[in-house]
Amino acid sequence: MRLADACTIHTGYTARGRLEPAPGGVLAIQLRDISPEGLVDPEQLTRVQLDGLADRYFVRTGDVVFRSRGERNTASALDERLQEPALAVLPLMVLRPKREVVTPEYLAWAINQPPAQRHFDSAARGTNIRMIPRSSLDDLELDVPDIETQGKIVVVDALAERERELTRLAADTRRKMISLLLVERANSIRPKTRQERTSK
């Protein structure tokens, strides 16, 4: 299934200049607000003062944002922590899944998988800054199983990621313990100083 058939796609808001923080303004999601793990923390978003904005630029819980520029062209599903609409700023693209066809979590997962990433690699433009054209996003072919299967895939992927995190944590803890034991061992067998020998 083409991505354009699984969701509606809009470009983010084009900022004419630097977006200055403005208490009481609208929330804005910019490229820098997406963590390396692909997460968006609404508590860390900046508010900006902009008026007369079209609704298509705003994202809500259940929408997906796609990074169309930079080395990482990945997608992130917005969860229930986003309590109010937020302005998506270019180079972010807004993907609004057709919920009877695809879930936001599965859509983001599928876009982040190697087949989709290879598609973007072949379509990327730009020499200094990698950019993914809108047409490439529209034409991305995805395998879209039934909703129940999508849910199972997302759950298994989350469990696998948690396992990877725990494995990394266990390895890091093991390295620290071994280092501590080696330091203690080295300290216990070091030659005694002259002062230590004569203090007896």
UniProtKB/TrEMBL annotation:
Keywords: DNA-binding, Restriction system. Gene3D superfamilies: DNA methylase specificity domains (3.90.220.20). The keyword DNA-binding applies. It comes from the Bacteria. The keyword Cell membrane does not apply. This is Type I restriction modification DNA specificity domain-containing protein. It comes from Peiella sedimenti. The lineage of its organism: Bacteria, Pseudomonadati, Pseudomonadota, Alphaproteobacteria, Caulobacterales.
